[in-house]
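Field reference: sequence -> structure
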Amino acid sequence: MRIVLLELSKYGFAFLIMFYTAVSYYGAACKNESRKRVTYVLQNVFMFSIHILGYFILYINNSEDINYLILYFAQLIYLFMVVTVFDILYPKASRLLINNMCMLMSIGFIMNARLDYNKCMKQFIIACASTILCFFIPWLIKKVKSFRNMGWVYCAVGLALLIGVLFSSRVYGANLVLSVGPVSVQPGEFVKILFVMFVASMFNKSVNFKQVAITTAMSAIHVIVLVLSKDLGAALIFFIVYVCMLYVATRRLDYMIAGLGAGAVASVAAYNVFGHIRQRVAIWKNPWATIDSSGYQICQSMFSIGMGSWFGFGLCQGMPKKIPVVEKDFIFSAIVEEFGVIFAVCLIMICLNNLILMMNIASRCKTVFYRLVAVGLGVTYGFQVFLTVGGAMKMIPMTGVTLPFVSYGGSSMLSSLVIFAIINGMYNMRQDEVGVNEKTGKAKKEKGK
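Structure field:
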């Protein structure tokens, strides 16, 4: 009976996430508010179904360990509270974005619980504490107008954190973590947000040549410090985000081409100067040559993805732990192996749906600062997903970037929740402006009559 349930669960996961993905895209395209409400309910039904099915499989595969049931019910309450509280506090927030966020977190909880129960518990506690903080962010976005004038503060704090990390102890060959007693944080996750706020604030003041030159110089310093820290993934994210924000702010194609050209030249120079970059590229080009050493991780990732097939081995039936640090950099490979290609493609489609929603919110922001922040954070999120998935599939060299909401990592979870809260704050504020304009228009019409 147990074997039959495990076999059927593979198809259950695949069809549930397919339905969820289809509903999400329908909701994004739908204009009718009543139909959108139905979409939100369906999203939640499919999300909670995947969550309960995942923990049921974990429960029966771990000798019916009661701890998995306790963790399931705790997460069930948490996910329900996130959806409900956001709907009560910010009824005009993007429910599609919130539901997608919860869906990704539920997948992450399931996969992390499968890999390491204790790490999943730690991740869940951090998610709970971070979410309480993020409930206040949309309110702050609406009330505090001085955020747009604090560009140099964002720059100074961000650089101070990055330089501090530069002199910290190395983790997996790179300077990534700052430790204060028993607590370790990865400042680069939060500096991404500060960097976007800095660039948006600078371009909100002016986009003349002098302002662009100053902003470009300070952005280059951010990237150089990250390269020196061997945090190549973050350095690449900062560069791409800056080029995109520069184009959106100036609408100058020549600036964008110049930026990409400078990035290409800098990449070639970095390849020749820094040995760790050459090593990453060599592993990417031919990991099989060093399968017993530096290429072992990516080779195991390719094995996992190749063995996944359409529906995967089934939850708890694969061997994802053979990939070193699988819960962080290679969580996507573990998902493909145990949930299958169909599930993994739908996961990517959900992330793409988030990016589309973010860009749509950015296009509706009237204030330059908020529009640039939304674009910057959207590109940060989208490009991070690309780096994680592309690195796991050997499309690009591995950069050590986590998959937002899914990979294990407290700093990644907090920064991802903050990004989504900021985006939702801007959407909520925009919806309030639309409501005020509609009321004003109606009042004028009645007065004219």
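Note: Residues 410-448 form the longest helix (39 residues).
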